[in-house]
Structures are given as C-alpha cells and as structure tokens.
Amino acid sequence: NAGVTQTPKFQVLKTGQSMTLQCAQDMNHEYMSWYRQDPGMGLRLIHYSVGAGITDQGEVPNGYNVSRSTTEDFPLRLLSAAPSQTSVYFCASSFQGWDGYTFGSGTRLTVV
Amino acid sequence: AQSVTQPDIHITVSEGASLELRCNYSYGATPYLFWYVQSPGQGLQLLLKYFSGDTLVQGIKGFEAEFKRSQSSFNLRKPSVHWSDAAEYFCAVGADSNYQLIWGAGTKLIIKP
User: Average pLDDT of B48-61?
Assistant: First the structure.
C-alpha cells in the first residue's frame, strides 16, 4: 500500500547509544520531514528535506542527523541518545508545496 | 514569528452534539491553514486545508472549518459528533517558503455516550 513507512515502531535505547530511525515513502514525494511529538507540545520539526540531496534544520535539530540520498528514503540518526530524546517520532511527506503531508504511524522511542 | 494557539487542551462533548474546536494563528499575511486528526497510537491524517477563496472549507468525515481573517481564527466544526471522532486534533499554519508547518499543541476530544 502506498504511504509512509516507519521502522521500528518501538525502541528502547540506553543513554549514549546511537541508532537510525527509518522512513520510506513510495509516493514520489519531494518534501519529507521529521517531527517529534511530546505531550502538550504538539509537533516540533527536527529536520526536513525538499528533495534528494537537500536537507535543512528545523526547530529542534540538536542531537539528530539526516540525509536524503534518494527520493524515497529519509533516515533520522540519533548520534548519542539522551533521556530528553524520549518521544514519539513521526516522518511525513508531501508531493509539493501545500498539498498536505502524509504521516507515518510513528516510532515510540524510550531512552533510559 | 508565526504561532498557532489551540486554547482548549481537552473538550468533552456528548455523542450527537455539535462540536467546535478553536484555533488562532499569528501571521502577517494570509497563511495556509490545516486541521489534522490523530487517533490513539496512530499518525496524523489531514482533515481539511484552506489556501484562499471561500472561507468555509469542507473536509473529510463531515468536518468543516471557517477562516476568519479579522479574528485570526480557523475553527473546526462538526454538526453531530460520533464516538469514532474521539481523537486529538491539531491545527497547523504554513507560512514558510520551504513548505513547513507550525503546529498547535492539540485539543483532545472526548466523547460522552
């Protein structure tokens, strides 16, 4: 089925560990974004991309890296996990402009 | 700086009653406005969007929203809610040339039987 696929759905990390959250879409969307969702704070933009090879920082980029080597994939890397990065992470994509974003089902990350 | 305010953290409505969720934004020009819904444990789904033209916008699942420039508001309405409407609702503003959204904190809708 067409859409945005995020893996894993759940992850527990120890402080200091690194990992990559995967995001893939099969809709040929140019725009992709990573958000984190924390209670009472809505969604906060971490990084985004407007096309393959182009990425930029959002509101809360510290501690995260991204790359966009293909149109389909937009992985999010946690460099050295901290308890403050415990959150639910969403990847989203859009065809162009203000079409509206399609969201993945999220990754729930706990850092202990 | 652009911002979005959803004044109500929770709203409780009886099944069959009407619903209005409030959203206020701060932006100098006419923004692009969106409402999304998030069911428990799920991602977000686009309900409706406003770009220009008719200020009353129809969306999916029987929802509508009205853009009022004078009040900087974009409130979401539904004439009769169903138990399946229980979810969290997010208002978002698009005002960046890189097509990124600014989000409200969300309103959790609780339906009383």
Answer: 92
